[in-house]
Amino acid sequence: MDDAIELNQQTYDWCVRAFDRVKSLLGVRIKLHHEHGQIEQGDIFLFNHFARMETFIPQYLIYKETGAFCRSIAASEFFKGDDRFAKVLYDLGAVPSDHPDLMPMLARDILKGRKIVVFPEGGMVKDRQVLDDRGEYSVYSRSARSRRKHHTGAARLAIGLQIVKLRVLEEHRRGNHELVRSWAELLDLPSRDALIENARRPVTIVPANITFYPLRITDNILRRGAEMLHGNLSQRAVEELIVEGNLFFKTTDMDIRLGDAISPVQSWVWWERLLAAHLSRSISAPSDIFDGDFLRLNLVRKTAAKGLGASIRRLRDRYMRDIYGEVTVNTSHLASRAILKILDDGNKQFNLDEFKRVIYLAIKKLQRHRHVHLHRSICNPTVYRELLHAETPEMNQFLQSAVDADLIELYPNKISFKDKLAVEHGFDSVRLENPVEVYANEVEPIKEVDAALTEAINEVGSLSRSAYAKLMFDDELIALEWDRALFDKPRHREINHRETATADPNPYLLIPQAAADLGVLLVHGFLASPAEVRSLGDKFFAAGYTVLAPRLKGHGSSPWDLRERSWHDWFGSVEHGREILNGLCERICVVGFSTGGALALLLAASQAHGIEAVASVCAPIKFRNKNMRFVPLMHGANRIVRWLSKYEGLMPFRPNESEHPHINYRNMPIRSLYELTRLVARLETEIKHVSCPVCLVQATDDRVVDPASATLAYDLVQVKEKEIHWIESTRHGILSEDIGGTHALLLDFVARVAARRSGQPVDEMGHSAPNCT
Questions:
Q1: Which CATH superfamily is 504-627+653-755 part of?
Q2: Which of 22, 623, 687, 749 is 20 to 30 Å from the Cα of 236, by its Cα?
Q3: Three-class SS state of 351
Q4: Strand-pair partners of 592
């Protein structure tokens, strides 16, 4: 090989280390998605092209993952004029697209264990339009000023190299060791055995997609600085500095998703195998298969090569489809396609709240399609479910960009679409002038997106409250999966592996066939999960009540998850459960145990819609363990240690000797104890606002909660309809163990609440309570 174009490993390593340091200063957050060993198995990696700065990142990631060097193909103009710049490109593995020995060189690199990175679109596709009017894949060519298919170079390289490998294996089987050895020398391989071993591996193409999110069109310091240095800039330069500067210097997700590996040899039909075998026998050197003159000089070879041309085009078409099928779908994609669909239906405006619900419904529909890749913001219910309640940062950013581009107008209750949405813009202005079109084009190949949006638009005005409630409950199940995955990294596993809980931590929703109009919201305790209240929930269900047991944030997943949550997160879980249950029942009785009891009282104190009554079992206001007074001090010390060092604190966790180790966390975060003390302090100030009937149940000799808590809560509650029950027990977990008829007490209380109607007093409130009348 020409030494001038051989990559320089020292320069390559230096650039990788430099980017390691620079990456933390950039706004872009790079995430590589891959499974099934695509990086190790892959030879040729194909990426779509949207921004100039993305062209070196795949090589960096492949090197970091495998240590393999990459060869990439760059436009020939980069190698002209400045010899020093060209030398740097060669050192980093880039070669000009018009190099006369390009294909043989790339084939040799693959056989030496290097990876080939190709952007087969042949240039940036700024408008992301990859489907033409007939639904065929094509991209705009700036040089030709027309649409065309992807280049076939990657397909030609893969099929040509596979033919070379067929010949090597055939000669090896025949015992022609001298030819194999001579080819190993031509290919600069260390031995004949190395060539044979490599030939046994089929050539593999890995299609991949790069998706940036979000796309911003506001001005930035990069564009202003360039203008100060160089004066007036061209429209193309301005557009690229604004759009691409924002991609890399403002907070942006760059999802790089590798698709399924493609081995051309495995898709050949019988006659293609015959043609490939014939061509392999006709070459005298590996480079012959890439020599057009050699193939054309002989009529049989020419015919065979022409026959394989169909294989090359079919392979090209497949990887085109696969590249665009790997797009990471986000909120802006859905909103953009929704706008175009609404316009196609002849509507120039749309209710803003309904528009957000359309996006929510489309997300829920797309979650059923496992092969559609969703951005993490629409995989995490904590983020996307806010579309049903308030503004979300993702939706706000999209809508503001559309306003800034003069594409829409926003009013308090509606979104109005402007005529500019239908205007065709130039290739170098479309990203600034119509980001809606760019987003919409990017997901046009994903047919499930349009189908989900069509259904959502048709349903949004007629979907029942109960249907929304069931979708929101599904979000609760997804949230547990999300949180478990989030806190299952190597740094979390030592603590996670010590955990003893085996009970199902999922929230549950039980709906009887003939449900009462009163539903029961069951709230579990600190360190536990909904499994703690399952046996009681089953009894309420059997009695004809709709039952929902939400999972408090941080519970049932990992102690590390709990450590990151505040009491506001726990209360948010209860409030969200109330909202779900309100979609199914007009009236709700909240029943909570321990910390869940405190949260139940706090929910009732908030005057939340639909709360008819509240029952609290062993809720803490005072604790048996006097060391709880030192929790704020220990939490503060942990925070200082975390701030000053890389360590997690003096004592981030302490062991929990639980009465129910199959349900509760074994490791208790100190910070979470601190949040518990904050919750109790808030309850003491807010409990006086409870205005519904109250039932308090407390173990007489509770070893965790000071029984005086129940008396204190009873005295702080201002309503007349209140009762208190004492259970003779030294146990704290009287609810899960149904000690002293705790379940019967609660069933009776809820039955009496169910029998009453708003404004009517409850009969016989409190058999063992002081007289409340």
A1: Alpha/Beta hydrolase fold, catalytic domain (3.40.50.1820)
A2: 22
A3: strand
A4: 523, 616
